[in-house]
Amino acid sequence: MTTTVASAVATPAATATATATADTTGLLVAAVRAGRTAEVVALLDGMTDAQRRAAFPELKAVRQELRTARWSADSRRAHPALHAAGAACQTGAAAVANWLAAVDMRWSQASPAVLLHVLGDRDRGWLADVAHRLAQRPAASNVSYELMAGLVRLSGCPVPTTEAYVQGWLTHVGGDWQRGGTVCDRLRRDPHLAELVAALFRTEGVGTQLGWLSGDGPESWTSALARLTGEGVLDRRSVVDACVARLLRGGAPAELRVFLRLLKDLALTREEERRRAADWTALASDAMPTVASHAQSVLGALALAGELSPRRLAQVTEAVLFRTEKKLVRAQLVLLGKVLTKNRSAAGELLPAAARAFGHEDSDAQERALKLVERHVGKVTAAEVREELAGAAEQLIPALRARAVRTLGATPPDSVPVAHEEVLPPPPQPVRLAPAPAAAVEVAEEISALLASGSDVAVFERALDGLVRHAHLDRDALLEALEPVVARRWWAEGERRHGHRSDDFFARRHELFDDARAFDLLLATLYGKVRTDTLHRVVHDGLTNSGCAHNSLARPFEARVWEVAHRLRTDPQPFLLATPTWGTGLLEPGELVDRLDAYRRAGARVAAVDFGQALLRVRRDNRPAALAAAERAAALGTEEGERLARRLLTERAAPSVTRRTADTRILVELGEVPDLRAEEFPAALRLLGRPVNPDSDHWYCSHWSGAMRPHWFALLPERPELVAARLLRDVSEAAVHDQQGTAASVLPHLADADGEAGEAVHLSVAYGLGARHAEDRLAAVDALLVLAARGRLEAGRLGADLGQLVRRGAVKPARLADAVRTAAATGANATVWAVLRQVLPVLLADLSTGGATTSSARGLGELLAVAAECAERTGERGSLPHLSGVADRRGTSRLVTQARRLREALAAAPAAA
User: Fold this and answer.
1) Domain DUF7824: where (predicted)?
2) Are 793 and 757 in contact (CB under 8 A)?
C-alpha cells in the first residue's frame, strides 16, 4: 500500500519534469532553427545536465535534416547555433570533439567565445581531454585555434604541440588581424612560448607558413625568434640545436630556406660554429644547394682560420666534389687553393681529395681540379700520394688526361681505340589482356577499383567487356554484385546534380572526360537512371561537336560507350568485338574472325561503332597473319566478314603532311585519310580521317585533364602519327608555356605504339626534350630511347627539328642539354651524338653570323659539353660545320672551352672506355 501511494504521489512530479524538459527542448530546437545563438546560449545556461542530454537527439535530427540541403538559407542560418548547442548537450569528450570538428560543421561554426562559454562549466580534466582531442585532428580540419587555446587556458593542461595546434598558433600570432604590438611582442607575452617554439622545428610544413605570414623583414618571425633568443627569453643552445637539426632533416626547399634565414639571424659565434663542424659537413654533403652553400662557407671560414683540420677538410671536399652543383664544386676548389697557399703541409691530404673532381661529369670542374693539383703538386713529398694523383687522372676527359701525362706522370691512354657499345633499353614487350572476369562479383570489384583510381586501356577494356558479358548472361546477378559499387555513386538515389536529375545530366552532357564518367553512364543505364529515349537520341543523332582539336579523338571513344549503354538497355551483346588483344589497343585479326563467327552462330546483331572500332584496331602489319585471317573472314559469308577481309587486304593510304609554323612553334597539318573516311564507318569514327589543320580548331577545351589520352591512342594503335598530329600543340605547351604533365601523358604511348614514327611523333619528342618540368623531359628521354631501341627513331629528323625549335625560341638549349645528358648517361652516346650533330651546326651558324638570340646562345656550352663527351666515348671522327669559328675565339668561357674540346675529340682523340 505504501508503494502504491508513493508511486501515485511521484507520478505528477515526474510528469511535470518530463513536460518541462520537452518544453525546454522545443524552445532550444526552435532557437537553433532560427539561428538565434544568443537565445540558445541563454537556454543552455538554464538547463540541467539531464535536460541537455534529453535535447541532444532532437539536435541530431536537425543536423541530419540540414545535411540534405547544406547550402540552403535555413542551413546557413541554423548551423552556428546548432554547433554550439550540440557541443553543450553531450557528455563524452570524444563525442564533443567529433561534433566540434565534423566536416559538415566546418563551414559555419559558432564563435570560440560562445563555445567556451557553453563548455566552460565542465570539469578541468574533461576540458583538457577535449582540447587534446581537437588538437590531434589533422590541420585540414580547420579547428579554431582560439577554441583550443581557450580550453587549454580553462583546464590548465599542458599545451598540445600537434601540427594543428602549432599551425593555428602561428596564424594567430602572425596574422595581420592581430593587434597589440609586433610579432616579437606577442610572442614575449605567450606563456607557452618555449614549448611551442620547440614544436616549430618538429612540425612539417610550418617553415613555408612562417615565410608567408610575415615575410623576411625586421618584423618577421625569424627576426623575432632571434631577438627573443638574444634576450634570453628562449634558450639559445636549444634553439640553435633545433634549427640545425631541422636543416639536417631536410624537406621542401621553401621551408628550409626559412630555417636557414633563422640560423643566419641567430648569428652564431665562432665557438658555436666550431662545435657543430660535423653538422656542417653533413649539410655540405647532402643538403639542398642553398643550405649546403651556407655550411660550406662556415667550414671554409673555419679552415682559413686554422680551426678545421686538413683531414676534416679533405672529408668535406670529397663529399662536396661528389655533388653535381657546379657552384659548390667551384667554391670548394677555390677554398682548397687558399688553404694550400697558407698551409703547404696540407697538400698530402688535400690534393687527393681535390682529385675526386677528376671524375666529375662537368669537364670544367675536371679542368679546375687539374689546374689546382698541377699548381700544388710540388708540395707533395710522399711518393704514394703522387702515384694516387696519377692514377686518379685516368678519369679525366681525353684532352685533360693527355695534359696530366706530362704534368702528373699519368699513364698514357691506349693507342688502340676502345669500341663503343651502345646501350639501349630492351624494346617494351606487349602485354596481352587477361580474359574477361568469369564472375559478376569480379566485374564489380574491377569496376569499383577503376572508379576509385582510374585505369589504363587494358583495365578499362577488360572491365567493359566483363560488364557487357554478364549483363547478357545474368543481369540480375550482375545488378546484385554491383550494389555496393552503385551505392556510392552520385546518381544512385536520384540526387540532383547542378539542378538536374541523372538522366537530364547525361542527356545534356555527352562528354566522357574520364573512365569514371564512362562507367557512371553504363551503370546508371543498367539501374534505369537514364531513359531509353535519351540513349536512342544520342546514338541516333550523334554526339555534339566540341569544336576543339580533340573532337576527332574524343567522339569515337564516347560514341562506342554510348552505343554499349544503348545496347545494354535494348539488346545486350554477348561480348564486345573491339576488345583489344594487347594493352596498346591492338587486336589480332584471327581473334576478330573468331568473334564474328561466334556472333554469326549466336545470331547476335553486330553493333556498328563497336565493329568499326574493331576494324581500326585490327593488326595489319603482320601480312601472313592478315592474309590468313582475311581468307577465313570472307568464308564466314556475312557482311562483317567481307568488310574485315577487305580491310585486311587493303593497303593503308598515307595522308599528305605539311609543316606549319605558329608563333614560335612548328606544327603539322595532315590531309584527309581516305581509308578512314569510307562511308562504311559510322560517322563518329570517320572523324579520325578528317584533315588536321593547326589553325582552324579551338585548342583550349574541356579535355585538359588528359585522362582519356591513353584511350585515344588505342583508337588507332598502328597509326600513332594521326593521334600525335592532333595532340602536338598540347605537347608543345610543355616547352613553350611550361605546362606540366602533358608530355609525360602522351610520349610513352607514342613510343609504345606499333606504327611508324613520322613528323608529328618526332616533333612531339623534340618538344618533350625541351620541356620545363623534369617529369616531362624524362618521359621524352624514355621515348627517345625506346624509339631508338625499336629502330623507329630518325635521329637526323629529330636533330633538325630541335635545331629549328631552338632557333625559334620554342626550346631552350639548357633544358635540351639536361635531357640529352640524361639520355647519354644511360649509355646511348651514339644515339645522342647522332641527334646533336644535326642540332649544333644550326646554332653554331647563328652564333658565327650574329643571328643567335640570347635565349638560343644561353646553354649552348652545355650542349657542346654533352656532344663532346658523346664524341669521346664513341670515337667519332670528322668535322662539324661552324665549330672551328667558335673554338678559335679568345677567352675561356664554357662555350669556347667546350667547342675546343669537341673539336679535339672529333680530330684525333681515341674513344674512351
Assistant:
1) 456-680
2) yes
Cβ atoms of 390 and 410 within 8 Å: the answer is: yes
Q: What CA–CA distances, in Å, run from 303 to 12, 278, 298, 308? A: 93, 13, 9, 5
* H-helix segments, 357-501: 363-376, 383-392, 398-407, 440-453, 457-473, 475-486
DSSP 3-state of 245:
helix
Is there a contact between 168 and 195 (Cβ–Cβ < 8 Å)? no
Reduced to 3 states (helix: H, G, I; strand: E, B; else coil), residue 582 is: strand
- 134: nearest Cα among 121, 150, 120: 150
Distance CA 776, CA 774 (A): 5
Q: Residue 415 carries which DSSP code?
A: S
CA separation for the pair 550, 725 (Å, rounded): 10
Residues in Cβ contact with 81 at an 8 Å cutoff, skipping those fewer than 6 apart: 31, 32, 34, 35, 36, 37, 40, 110
b/e per residue 244-259 (b: at least 16 CB within 10 A): bebbeeeeeeebbbbb
How far is C-alpha 711 from the chain's CA centre? 20
Query: Long-range contacts of range 475-481, CB-CB < 8 Å, 24 or more positions apart?
Result: 475/526, 475/572, 477/440, 478/440, 478/443, 478/444, 478/526, 479/526, 479/527, 480/440, 481/439, 481/440, 481/441, 481/443, 481/444
The DSSP result for 114-138, as a single string, is: HHHHHHTTS-HHHHHHHHHHHHTS-
* Cα dihedral 324, 329, 330, 333 sign: negative
Q: Which amino acid is at 810?
A: A
d(CA 692, CA 672): 8
Decide: 880 and 843 in contact? Cβ < 8 Å.
no
* φ, ψ at 876 (rounded to 5°): -65, 145
Neighbours of 415 (CB within 10 A): 6
Report the 10 Å Cβ neighbour count for 902.
27
Backbone angles phi, psi at 593, to 5 degrees: -60, -45
User: Is the CB of residue 418 less than 8 Å from the CB of residue 912?
Assistant: yes
Cβ-based neighbours of 411, under 8 Å, separated by 6 or more: 390, 391, 394, 405
Question: Quick check: 457 and 714 in contact, CB under 8 A?
Answer: yes
